[in-house]
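User: Please predict the structure of the protein below. I'd like the answer in structure-token form so I can feed it into my own downstream comparison script.

Assistant: Understood. Taking the following sequence of 281 residues as input:
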Amino acid sequence: MKKKNKSPKVQILLATYNGEKFLPEQLDSIINQEYKLWEILIHDDGSFDNTMSILKKYQKNYPKNIKLLIDQKIFSSASKNFFHLIENRSKEANLYCLCDQDDIWHKKKLDIIIERYHSKDYKKPLLIHSDLSLIDSEGKLLKKSHNKLINFQKNFVTKETCLYYNPVPGCAMTINSSLADKIYYSKYMVMHDWWILLSAINANTSIVYINFPLVKYRQHMGNVLGYKKINIFILIIRLFFKIPQYFKNVKKAHAQSKQFCNQSGLQYFIKLVFHQVKMNL
């Protein structure tokens, strides 16, 4: 019987686009990991700043660890870019870490993840995720715990709850090879990380949560997900003025959920509102 590798190989999947401002700090935080058996696979989505120059410089300095996937493909979509990386992953790796270009990793991130990896059956699908701290564009701490900010929803990820909300940002996700073989791109997905979580939990994946911030999650104008917890009254006012876009988003989320649970649009909407109110209480 094949034994688990005591020093598993980690492949870091990094999607980039116009990331010159923060990219070097993220790359340095990976290079400075205490665990050394890793490589980065990078695909750029058509940057027109100095991102590619930065990547080529780091690749030249670390040729054994940094690989650029250069194929002239442009998706104009972070989600499609990440799935492109997953499709082109090294089949020799044991673990795959999704990585944003503007965050900062804790130096023991990979060490801690691998410790949890060793506690599970490597042959079965596995998703490991951690808490994050939130920083601003200058690196100043905004929140010590993303989990606390969202009312500890990371502690209660179920097939039911993740239909309506994704508490696991992709930058905090690590998946094993067994799970990577089961996930696929779908036109119904809202975002890659939400789709991966839904796919994982519906494939009886072991979900392991590390209650420690292993990533400094940068919040700035370019972020899709903000950090501020919204007052219910303000939330209602915002929804009133953004009703068309809100219902468009609800429709997309419902279409995504139908791939895993058959319910009417009205049923989905009622439960979605319930979860949104619960999240912001």
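That's the full token string. The two ends are 51 Å apart (CA to CA).
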